[in-house]
Amino acid sequence: MTFASVILASIATNFSGVITFEREGLPFYFLKDGSGSNWRIEKVEGVPAHVGDFVEVKGEKEFSSKPRLKTREIVLKKGSDRAVVAPVEVTIAELFDAVMPHGNPAWYGGVYTTEGLLRDINRRQNSTQLLVGDGERNIQVDMPWALDVALPDDFVVGATVRVTGALAYTSIENLEEGKFARIENLELIPMTGDDVKIVNRAPPPPFWTMRKIRTVFAVAGFIFLLMFIWVVTLRKMLRRKMRELAESIRARETTRIEADASRRERLRLAADLHDGFQQYLAGAMFRLKAARNYLPKEAVKSAEQLEKVHEALQHTQNGLRSTLWAMNEESEGPESLMGLFAFVARRMPHWEGIVEIKSEGEERAVARNYCGSLLLVVQEAVANAIHHGKATKVEVLIHFSEDEIVLSVVDNGTGFDVEEVSSLSGHYGLKTMERRISELGGTMKIESSPGAGTRVVMRI
C-alpha cells in the first residue's frame, strides 16, 4: 500500500465482510472483506456481532499503514450463516519472514495457528502475557486470563504450546514523511483460553540447577565460615585455658614451696621453743616451788603470791605445750582439714572409742594457718569434755558450705553453768578458744547446763 493510497483510504468508506475475531473485553473486531483483506474495526455499542456474522460497516479509515477502521455503524446482514473462517497454519519463522521488519497489511488481523516453546509467563491484572518462541524468535500471546484465574497444571515454562489467534503488531509511523519504524512487538490474540493448548509437557527440571548450585555454595560457604570462626574461637579458648593451667600450676608449685618452707620453719620454731623456752619455764617453776618451801609458815601472803605465779607459769607452759603439739601435728599431717583431723585422732590414744569426727557438704580448701588454729580449738574442746566433763562420747562435726564452715563439738559429759564459768577469772581454756576463733573472723557459742552435756558451735 503506497502513501497515496493510505491518504485516499482515510476518507469515509463502507464495505461488507465476515467477522473473524471477537473477544469479550476488547473494543474491536477483526473482519475479512470480500477482497480477502483483514480489517480491525471498532465495536459499536448495542450491536451484538459475533464471529461468523456477515456485516456491513461504515466509518473512516485511520491515518495508518495498518487496515484499521474508526467505525460509525455496523449492520448485520440478513441471511448470515455464521460461517467461521478457518485459521491459517503457519510457523513462527513464516510469521517473522512475512511481517518483519516494517509490517505487512495483508497479514495484519489474520487468524493463524502456530506452535512454539513457552518461554515466559507474565501475570497481569486483567490478562496473562505469554512468550512463545522458535529458535531466537519470539511472539507475544495475550491470554484472557485475569490475575485471579488459576493456570492449568501443565502450563509451565518449557512446555510446547499450540496457539490460535489474530495477528497484531505495533510500530511507530510517520506517514506524512513516508517513514516506517521497525516493528517492536509481534502478537497473537487468542479469542478464549481454549485457543492455547499444551502439545508437549515441559521436561522435568534438572536436579542441579544454577539456583541450587548457588544455594549449595552459599550454604557451604556459610558453614565453612562458621567452622572457621569456631576454630579461631576454640584456639583462643584453648590458649587461654593453657595460660590459666600454666598459671595454676605455677601458683600450686609456689604454694607448695611456700608451704614446705613454712612447715620447716614451724618445725624449727617448735624445736627451739621446746628445747629453749619450755626448759626455762620448767626450771622457773621448779625454783618457785623450792622458794615457797623455804618460806616460814607465817608468810602466808607471800606463799599465796608465789602460788599464783606458779599457776600462771603452769598455764603458760600448758598453752606452749598445746601450741607446740599443734605445730608439730599441722606440719606432719595431710593438707586437707578433714585429713588433718583424722591424722591427729589416730595419734591420740585417749581419744579412741570416745571421739568421732564427721563432715557434711563438699570439703573445700582451707588455709594452713586456719587448720592449725582450728586444730588447737578442737583439741581444747575435746580435752575439756574428757577431763572436766568426764564425757564418754564426743562428736566433732565439720559442715562445709559455700559461705562458711561450721565446726561443732558435742559431748555427753556432766556439763556446767556457762555464765558462772565465764565469770571466773582463772578459766583460760574457753577464753583462749574464743580468742582464736575471733582472730579467724568467726564466732563461738557455748550451750551447756549441769548434767546435760556441752555443745560448742564455731562459725567461720
Radius of gyration: 59 Å
Pattern of helices and strands: HEEEEEEHEEEEEEEEHHHHEHEEHHEE
* Number of helical stretches of at least 4 residues: 9
**Which class of the largest domain in CATH terms?**
Alpha Beta
Distance between the termini: 117 Å
Q: Find the CATH topology of the largest domain.
A: Heat Shock Protein 90
Sheet/helix structural class:
alpha+beta
Q: Mean pLDDT, rounded to whole units?
A: 82
Number of domains: 4
**How many beta-strand elements?**
19
Report what the structure shows:
By secondary structure, the protein is α+β, with helices and mostly antiparallel strands. The chain folds into 4 domains: 3-76, Nucleic acid-binding proteins (OB fold (Dihydrolipoamide Acetyltransferase, E2P), Beta Barrel), CATH 2.40.50.140; 88-200, OB fold (Dihydrolipoamide Acetyltransferase, E2P) (Beta Barrel), CATH 2.40.50; 276-332; 334-460, 2-Layer Sandwich (Heat Shock Protein 90), CATH 3.30.565.10. Helices cover 39% and strands 27% of the residues. The protein has a 5-stranded mixed barrel with strand order 1-2-3-5-4. Strands 7-8-9-13-10 form a 5-stranded mixed β-barrel. A 5-stranded mixed beta sheet has the order 15-16-17-19-18, covered by helices on one side. Strand 8 and strand 9 (137-143) form a beta hairpin. Helix 3 (210-275) packs antiparallel against helix 5 (300-332) and helix 7 packs antiparallel against helix 9 (428-439). Residues 1-9 have low confidence and may be disordered.
